[in-house]
């Protein structure tokens, strides 16, 4: 494509244009110092700004002989040098050869002295800073009723939360009387029990903002029981009020963003809290229900009815076990008895058999000794009238009736006489 250039070519071309411009090669620019940085290389990087614009600047270490004082944030200076393009980034800046304080240097010296004094007194210490309420509903504002600051604050407050109450103390924010009005506004609103105060104004020169560099204003902010947000000037502006306040906002609009909570976000947050709370409550209830079921079960197990039921169950089990044991014992005893009976029968059979055998033997022996056996051989058995056996002649007398028991009957006889064996010579 014809007529297409590289970035380097364009930046080089623009730089040559700057270099050829006589006005830019030796120009003096007046502005307030901000973003100041003394680099370890000896170079000084800073920004010069006014109420509407800003330009980057650098003073190289080789040019520092043109600087007779140490630069500080907020100083009003006049810097002379060349404005040209830094080809690498395509940005233009002032390469300063000489820097001097402008006619407002005295104000900056006063600013630095007061800042140092109040700093040493501890008024800027973080330990004294009060937290800004997250959900402020009543907000006090000390500023001009006709300035852009109040309009910005109202617009943002209405957009973020139309239910927040804004209470304005109209105070001039510029001129000799401004500091007194600002102090009265802070003190009056502080007594109203508001949630937060916004003290500030739109941007301007150091002279325009000087009311917020007054010690009385800083002390009123520090002494207030209500948290104070300082919102003075634009983002690059810094005042003593910013250091003394509980929070600094770069602009009044930013102060409104910090002080007024977003209603829609608040509702969304409430919904999320509701969901989380319901989840926690549900979880708690479920745990309590589980605990209740556990305790109910434990209580039911320990109740008299459960104990009686358990005892009955145990008693029934014991009864069944006892019955089983008794049956087993009876069966054992029956078996033992049957075994004993069987053994007894065997023993008795043996004994009877043995007795029979012995009886047979004894019978045989007795038969051998039996009188009947003898009688059967022709002998008899004599018995007297007293039915006693007659074993001797001396037992009978003549005339006695005796009976002779024979094999086949009984003979009754009368004793005619009796004689001993000696009669026959035995």
Compile the SSE list and pairings.
Layout: H1 7-20, H2 22-25, E1 27-38, E2 44-49, E3 54-59, E4 76-86, E5 91-101, H3 105-121, E6 138-143, H4 148-160, E7 165-170, H5 178-190, E8 196-201, H6 215-223, E9 228-232, H7 240-244, E10 247-248, H8 252-259, H9 263-302, H10 304-369, H11 371-376, E11 381-383, E12 401-405, E13 410-414
Parallel strand pairs: 3-5, 6-7, 6-8, 8-9, 9-10
Antiparallel strand pairs: 1-2, 1-4, 2-3, 4-5, 11-12, 12-13
Please give a structural write-up.
By secondary structure, this protein is α/β, with parallel strands linked by helices. It folds into 4 domains: 7-103, Beta Barrel (OB fold (Dihydrolipoamide Acetyltransferase, E2P)); 110-261, Rossmann fold (3-Layer(aba) Sandwich), CATH 3.40.50.261; 268-332; 373-424, no CATH class. Helix content is 46%, strand content 20%. The protein has 11 helices and 13 strands. It has helices at 7-20, 22-25, 105-121, 148-160, 178-190, 215-223, 240-244, 252-259, 263-302, 304-369, 371-376; strands at 27-38, 44-49, 54-59, 76-86, 91-101, 138-143, 165-170, 196-201, 228-232, 247-248, 381-383, 401-405, 410-414. A 5-stranded mixed beta barrel has the order 1-2-3-5-4. A 5-stranded parallel beta sheet has the order 7-6-8-9-10, with helices on both faces. Helix 4 (148-160) runs parallel beside helix 8. The longest helix is centred in the C-terminal third of the chain and has 66 residues, at 304-369. It is rod-shaped and about 210 Å long. The protein starts with 6 loop residues before the first helix and ends in a 12-residue tail after the last strand.
